[in-house]
Amino acid sequence: PRHLLAAGDLDRPTAEHLLDTAARIEQAIAGREVRKLPTLRGRTVVNLFFEDSTRTRISFELAAKRLSADVINFSAKGSSVSKGESLKDTAWTLQAMGADAVVCRHSSSGAPQQLSAWVDGHVVNAGDGTHEHPTQALLDAYTLRRHLGGLQDRRIVIVGDVLHSRVARSNVLLLRTLGADVTLVAPPTLLPVGVSDWPATVSYDLDRALVGADAVMMLRVQQERMQGAFFPTAREYSRGYGLDGRRRDLLAPNGIVLHPGPMNRGMEITPQVADGANSVIVEQVTNGVTVRMAVLYLLLSGSEGAL
Ligand code: CP
């Protein structure tokens, strides 16, 4: 494919090729003083962000720079979008400037797909509404693979605000494609309609789901996407669905804790667990750069076996 729009579009060989490519890139730059490859010299990557981001935007910038591409960072705030310019006109403007790839984050589900119909370059979905965040799922799968050896039949528990989470959907789809067994745990009010059609088991009992699991992924409670009152209350949420040390210790020996960030410390995860020995949250960020290098490399280099 020319674009990376959804984790659900990836078949197992493609996803594994991408993760293997990330591993090769990690090896290629390990221990080097200059952590840069010349592969995308002369190519232009545009970060087109209509929604706030720390990790995804910076890691795509770093990934493109480490492949020697030129990078343009465009955020809707401070651009002519604030004067009413449409996504389509914005896309054509970027195309006229010779963008080879556009990395797009947008609050509307489907915006990157729409964009892919308007530009000649490659489009990468950096998170669209409540739909998908495929590179987050890829970096999570990469992190899980490094720690668990492989994903086949591994038990992964995803906990929290599934209703508003593009991370949850992308992870369920990709982890299932890679052979893992996924359980979703959430209060009934934070599960989307149709979740029973997702390739995952749904549970309301966090303690029971965590016993012997290989990994737990905590989701951010997205209060900015909740209109009006948030139910359950923050205190009830932490009691029923927050990860503390007691719950973390229900995991299998060497079980790991993930969170895509940004975290609500003290709500979905205690600071002690977030910063504890089994936490791979900081490593997820590091792996995000490597995995995004692999995505840009495979899409833009035109090399054999590309995405
Ligand atoms: N995980 C994630 O997408 O973080 P940002 O919103 O900071 O990019």
UniProtKB/TrEMBL annotation:
Domain Aspartate/ornithine carbamoyltransferase Asp/Orn-binding: 153-299
Biological processes, Gene Ontology terms: 'de novo' pyrimidine nucleobase biosynthetic process; 'de novo' UMP biosynthetic process; amino acid metabolic process
Record keywords: Pyrimidine biosynthesis, Transferase
Keyword Thylakoid: no
Pathway assigned in UniProt: Pyrimidine metabolism; UMP biosynthesis via de novo pathway; (S)-dihydroorotate from bicarbonate: step 2/3
PANTHER family membership: ASPARTATE CARBAMOYLTRANSFERASE, ORNITHINE CARBAMOYLTRANSFERASE, MITOCHONDRIAL
Name of the protein in question: Aspartate carbamoyltransferase
